[in-house]
Amino acid sequence: MSAQTRVSPVFRKAPLFFKILSFWAMFWFLIGVVLTVSRVVKADESFHSLSTAHGISAPSYNTSVFTNPAGLTYNEHSRISAFAENSAVKVDHPTAGAGLLTGDGKFGGTLGLKQTTSSPAQSSLFYGGGYYVSDLKVAFGVSGLTALNGGGGTTLNGGILLFPRGDLKFGYTAFDFTGGVLAHGFGVAFDIERTLTLAGDLIYVPHGKDFYFRPGLRWGSSNIYATVSYNFRRGSSLGGIGSTADGPSLGLGLYFSQSVSWQIYYKQINTLFTGLTFDI
């Protein structure tokens, strides 16, 4: 009889939370092993053009307004951003948006407009700002989304990045804190070498006690970046905190020149998300 891999009955019957906790412990143990044999160096601004995991501990400078606004401090230039997103794989009525990003490495901010293509069209203003306190090695940020029609109101996110310029980073996001925090996001990320980041983000929803754990990896060179992550979910999918669907999520970023870059995500910022940025 051929040998087969056997799964312990104890582990098979264990609650989902403990399975995820075991996976997380193994994930960070492997990170520790890699760190002991890798030389860690600081990544440049272009490395932050693509986020990984939930975008809490390793946000990008152009989409952090939606995931962790402290990441807006990664902006070192002024640029125009245009994007489109859709909540399903089948593109039916996508949302399109455009805005201005600016920053000097300490302060970062964004202001823009997005609009649905459904009828009647709904328009929303998005905005955010962040500041890096170099003495404390911490960045703070606040972002918002305000409906201009349809009575959607305003939602605000608050974010923190501890050691955002270092090799080991910690992130936190309070999602929609206007009427009590909708969800809490926690994360840890390591920059390994110049081109590799390993991250693990956990989003916890107090109402319903749901959680979404997503470990991820981001790799990049001078003009191409890629990310892959996997979401473990307990509970139903929740709007307002990005894509929380089970399974893998992917991202790709390309620099066509020093001033023009393109990003595309699958099941991360939204089910489908693509954007272009132009330095000005």
In terms of topology, how is this protein built?
Layout: H1 9-12, H2 16-37, H3 64-67, E1 79-86, E2 95-103, E3 107-116, E4 123-133, E5 138-147, E6 154-162, E7 168-175, E8 183-192, E9 196-205, E10 210-220, E11 224-234, E12 247-255, E13 260-266, E14 272-279
Antiparallel strand pairs: 1-2, 1-14, 2-3, 3-4, 4-5, 5-6, 6-7, 7-8, 8-9, 9-10, 10-11, 11-12, 12-13, 13-14
Poorly predicted ranges: 1-13, 33-43
**Structural class of the secondary structure composition?**
mainly beta
**Can you tell me the CATH architecture?**
Beta Barrel
Strand content: over 45%
| End-to-end Cα distance | 67 Å
Output the CATH topology: Porin
Number of helices: 3
What profile does the largest beta sheet have?
Answer: 14 strands, antiparallel, barrel
Tags for this entry?
Porin, 14-stranded antiparallel barrel, globular
Structure in words:
The chain has 280 residues and is mostly beta strands. It is 11% helix and 47% strand. It has a single domain, classed as monomeric porin ompg (Porin, Beta Barrel), CATH 2.40.160.40.
Short description:
By secondary structure, this protein is mainly beta. The chain contains three helices and 14 strands. Strand 5 (138-147) and strand 6 (154-162) form a beta hairpin.
